[in-house]
Amino acid sequence: MPWIYRRLFDRGIKRDVEQQLTREELILVARLSQVEMKGVIGRTIYPRPTKQPSTFIYWSALATWGILRESEGNTPSRTFVHRMLERTNGVRRRRSDEFETDEIYQPFWPLPDPPKTWEEPDASLSFSLSNEERKFLREKISLVRKPGIQTAQTSLLANLAQAEITPATIDSDEVATHADEEDRPALMRASCAAALGAIGRAVYAALLEEVCESYDHRDTIGTLHRDHLSNIIVPRFRKNALLTDLTMLRADVPKMPDKVFRVLEETCNWLLGLRTPVMSLRDVYAEAEYSRKRDRARLPSRGLARERRNEWNPGLTTLAEPLHYRWHIAQQFLADLNDSKRQSS
Fold first, then answer.
1. Residue 312 φ/ψ, nearest 5 degrees
2. Is residue 47 reached through a cis peptide bond, with omega within 30 degrees of 0 on the bond before it?
3. Are strands 100-104 and 91-95 parallel, antiparallel or unpaired?
4. Where are the beta strands (DSSP E) in the chain?
5. What is the pLDDT of residues 98-134, one digit of tens each?
């Protein structure tokens, strides 16, 4: 994205920034899609543009990672950069006590050079990083602080980038080793909450199967999700789920709706009861679902729920698993940063 903006500044465009930016992004999608099958924003709808441009999606990250250049303590907004292109042709006047000078506006800190094929519009591109790019990104990421005005602590991602490791899971010992005193207990709570989330997801699917069979009399519904709940999810995750500190979890997620919190409480109580039928949880799950989905809810005994259940195919529903907190995204990011190290080892 910064390379695209640098190209627009070099051209000295004066109008239609959004249109020219969209054109550049579509060219990038086409070039990346020659090599990359995943991770290319807009690949599946090309040549139509995306509703949210890549530059819009990544702008906050560019600021957080220190790639956008600060001015007077603030990073420029995407709108401001576009205005600089349109109104000033990328040139702005700097005033001092003695004289005025014109300078080319640079919204980004000095960047690594793009690949040699960057200016060849038909040449393919990939997400593979050069050694220079890895060094640049690692230096930037390693300086990222935790959110908060007063904090001087680096973020967990910064610590992992500095350590040059690619942990397999978010709750691994490697991650805990590089977490600080604040993050380490939070990671433990997240691990327990992930286990409770796996059970909650499995309970919901099992309840749907049971209601479809016992109340809607669907003879071919099967027991896929009920078996998954009793044979895999509960035995595997019960212990960690019951270690979840619900009071601290609510502090971690202050906007959690009361009905969802009650679902977590009742799920823990159900786990303590061991042989209590899963249908004892229907009402609390149905109430929480209806509060969020209204007429799209499936579990309630009122409204359009039965119609929604008739549309439900348990075989097309993914089996429940723990919350992953999009760890695979961070893991891929770290793997990309460490690629040169793996190749040389």
1. -85, 135
2. yes
3. antiparallel
4. 91-95, 100-104
5. 555 556 678 999 999 999 999 998 999 999 999 999 9
Please list, residue by residue across 229-261, b when 16 or more beta carbons sit within 10 angstroms of its beta carbon and e when fewer do.
Answer: beeebbeebbebbeebeeeebeeeeeeeeeeee
State pTM to two decimals: 0.81
- Model pLDDT for residues 228-255, shown as the tens digit of each residue: 999 999 999 999 999 999 999 999 899 9
Contact 204, 285 (CB under 8 A): yes
CA–CA dist 71, 107 (Å, integer): 9
Of how many residues is the chain composed? 345
18-50 burial: b if 16+ Cβ within 10 Å, else e: eebbeebbbebbbbbbeebeeebbbeeeeeebb
Q: What amino acid occupies position 95? A: R
Selection from 231, 243, 170 nearest residue 202 by Cα: 231
Helices (H), the chain: 2-11, 17-33, 54-64, 78-88, 131-141, 156-163, 173-177, 183-214, 224-228, 234-242, 246-252, 258-273, 282-293, 305-310, 327-337, 339-344
Q: How is residue 135 written in tokens?
A: 């060094």
